[in-house]
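Hi P.,

Sorry for the delay on this. The queue was packed all week, but I finally got your sequence through. Input first:
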Amino acid sequence: MNRPLLFLDVDGPLNPYAAQPERRPDGYTTLRVPRDSGTQDEYRGLSPRRRPLRVWLNPAHGQLLLQLGYELCWATTWMDKANRWIAPVLGLPELPFVDFGDALFQERPDGVHWKAAPLVDYADGRPFAWVDDEQSDMDQAYVTAHHPGPGLLHHVNPRIGLRENDFRALADFARSMDTPRAMD
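Then the structure:
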């Protein structure tokens, strides 16, 4: 069986943007990204002439992610820009990314997050874990109803980012994909 996919959001899980702005978390480094780099703020129409975007990243996260047993994939508004700005700091190779196209930031009338349907489509039945700071019970219900394979929606607090317990939960899910299932 193929390894499960791990859909990675940047802002929240990898960049604890909601942490106290004057206190960089231990183990993190500060990256300054020009506002014209295709980040979320640019898509929202903010001027690219503003100060660079402050991004906190923990370089140790890259190796931890690579050891989890997943095929990693960006699932972020950064899309392909994550390979330019985020991957090198984390020591990750260039990763595939979900191109959200017209779904980017489009609110759905059913309240499901705009990423949910594109991620289910991208997974195409493969088991996946989605690491983000914005999922809800509606997203889990959507994945359960529309995705034939296992799907873990793992919420990360954007004030603290990925922690040891998050990596443990993701590793446990990946290992559960190796367990033969009982016949119905």
